[in-house]
Every structure is written in C-alpha cells, then in structure tokens.
Amino acid sequence: MCASIRSYNGVGDIAAIRSGARKSLYPLLRKQAAFVSYSLSDAGSGSLTSVSVFNTRKQAEAANSAVRELVR
Q1: How far is 27 from 16, CA to CA, in rounded Å?
Q2: Dihedral angle computed from the Cα positions of residues 16, 22, 23 and 26, in that order, rounded to the nearest 10 degrees
Q3: Tens of pLDDT, residues 17-56
C-alpha cells in the first residue's frame, strides 16, 4: 500500500473546505484505480491534513496528478 499525505496551511473556512472535498475531491479519488481510503483532518491553527491510500505507488502518483488538475 502507498499513502499520499498532504498538508494545507492557512486554509480559512475549514467547514467549507471539508464540504468541497466531500463534493469534488473524494469522488475523484474514489474513481482512481486501486483506491483504498481518504481522510481529511483538522490539524488546528487553520491547517488541514489529508491522507489518501492506494494499492501501489504508481496508482497514488496518478491520483496525485488528478488532484493537481482539480485544484488548478
């Protein structure tokens, strides 16, 4: 298994970001090959941490590319 861990600092409205992740990011990840899980945690002080798990590193890297495109 391979995990991608992302940290987001100075995010502002954490509730709005969670809602957006539920509506767009999670469905995108779920469609990726060999998706295992996704979690988003409030790290305090306006920071969030997300963890995406896939079966292989190659699949995790492909998902990372898809996430970058979504964020753009």
Answers
A1: 16
A2: 140
A3: 889 889 998 999 998 889 999 999 999 888 999 999 999 9
How many domains is the chain partitioned into structurally? 1
Global pTM reads: 0.80
Q: CB neighbours (10 Å) of residue 42?
A: 14
Containing structural domain, residue 8: 2-71
Whose tokens are 């964020």? That residue is: 71
Q: Is 28 exposed, middle or buried (0-12, 13-18, 19+ CB in 10 A)?
A: middle
Coil, strand, or helix at residue 72?
coil
